[in-house]
Amino acid sequence: MSALYPPPLKSIPQRAPTVHVPTAVLDRLAKVSSGSLTTQLYIKGFRQPVLHGLVSLNKKIKPFAGRAYTMRFIPAREDVDVYGNLTTQPDADNLQWVGVEQIEPGHVLVIDSNKDGRAASMGNMLVTRMMMRGARAVVTDGTFRDGTELSEMDFPVWSTGVTATTRLSYHHVADLQVPIGCAGVAIYPGDVIHGDGDNITVVPAHLAAEMADLCEARDDIEAYLALRVRAGEPLWGLYPPSPETRAQYHDWVAQGRPAIPAGQPATGT
Q1: What is the model's pTM?
Q2: Long-range pairs for 150-155 at CB < 8 Å and ≥24 separation?
């Protein structure tokens, strides 16, 4: 072929593997607040890392942080997504079972359901299997079935709601371990998925260790500032802390963190 019409590329360029986040870093991140995490990510330039609109199905919230294992849905097609394809052996038309059986300890399954909750992304049986394989949570921007059972589990389950309608009605699992969008946020395999009582937050893997350092420090000083606000002090110079307030915080830590008595809310006359 001429230079104007070269032969087509024979392969698609691949991204370099995502940085592996050690389990020790995941365990530290699981203890930080989503407020500190989103603020520190904002300072780094990440404006919206929260999977907005998702809620926990659990009666008891369990904080977590884990490595994203991604699953991408496309719309179901009638000649492919049939009940007979729910085989008990690996099958290209039933990648959901394959994904579940690839889950490793420390993973969080994140499902790109195209924000379509008309059919369940999965249910109790597959979620239980992932829990037994060591997953830390499962997240979808769609819905789950078996909500009653999932709500009782000691395993974080986040979604937009519950429906009994089978996945096959509207969803086909097209890809595993590829970049996805979930609730409007880009997620790459291996990114850290953080959950607490408020939000699900996505942390780029290469920032995970730095975020653990920054958020541990931020959570500690914010707890101190909250004590002073509860004692009745005004916000000026206190929150955000001035250099003087930061020096007072370090002195407080050096003194062994003495009690700061709470004040009484103001009352009208």
Answers
A1: 0.92
A2: 150/57, 150/58, 150/123, 150/124, 151/57, 151/58, 151/59, 152/59, 153/58, 153/127, 153/128, 154/60, 154/62, 155/58, 155/62, 155/127, 155/131
